[in-house]
Amino acid sequence: MDLSNLKPALGSTKSRKRIGRGQGSGYGGTSTRGHKGAKSRSGYSRKVGFEGGQMPLYRLLPKFGFKNINRIEYLGINLDTLEQIAEKLNTTDITIDLLRANRIASKSDRVKILGRGELTKAINVSVNAISKNAKLAIESKGGTVTII
Q1: What is the pLDDT along the chain (148 residues), one digit of tens a residue?
Q2: How far is residue 100 CA from its own chain's centroid?
């Protein structure tokens, strides 16, 4: 046996339906598209959300809400997470570059320290923003906070 006499299993392949080749083929006339209407025309494509002429859902429901284009998104990191990071990496200085290097923050993330959890040792933090409670907690343990 070699590659030249390989062929697909019996019944596993079908020949293509040749439409629009005359009445004798069985697929002439309307060429399997039914009679008239938009779907029978060439170049037809249905709109996303089209519901057969019924008022579509996206037009039925009212518009609402507000998207503030000036909003600044922060990645929130709590004090207990900071404590774990400091122990794991055996460091007291935590910067955005350190967080990015350890895949805690991505390249475009702005980092904000939040106040959940407790600290057991002094940590020096350099981030984009910090909450009032987190700043008090860090400074009470003898650490420093630098806003970039």
Answers
A1: 789 999 999 999 999 999 999 999 999 999 999 999 989 999 999 999 999 889 999 999 999 999 999 999 999 999 999 999 999 999 999 999 999 999 999 999 999 999 999 999 999 999 999 999 999 999 999 999 999 9
A2: 20
Name the residue among 38, 65, 105 with its Cα closest to residue 94: 105
What is the three-class DSSP state of 102? coil
**C-alpha span between 63 and 85 (Å, rounded):** 44
Q: How far is CA 6 from CA 9, 10, 14, in A?
A: 9, 12, 17
Distance (Å, whole) CA 121 – CA 141 = 6
Q: What is the pTM for the complete model shown?
A: 0.59
Rounded Cα–Cα distance for residues 95 and 86 (Å)? 11
